[in-house]
TrEMBL record:
Keywords: Coiled coil. This is Cell division protein ZapA. The keyword Coiled coil applies. Residues 57-94 form a coiled coil. It comes from SAR86 cluster bacterium.
Amino acid sequence: MNEQVVELQVRDRKFIFKIPYSDYLPFKEAEKRVIELIEEINPPEDKLDYGFVYCALKLAIENNKLQENTISEANETEKQIHNLTEKLEIFLNQ
């Protein structure tokens, strides 16, 4: 499996992870949200470890993928509705 090394700067600490290459684009799109999520949770310094940051990272990646799928499905549904509407208009105008 191809992996990509990514860095996250949270507070004054740098966290480095290897993620699947297929997750790289969703990660880059969600990177800011990961940091915002961690800052919002505001864990104590001793609880802010690789496990915590990695969980936030995976959650953001999955959320981003789900968002993309939802948008894609909505666009497809919109196209289908448009096609049906056109067919209905043609039928009614005959």
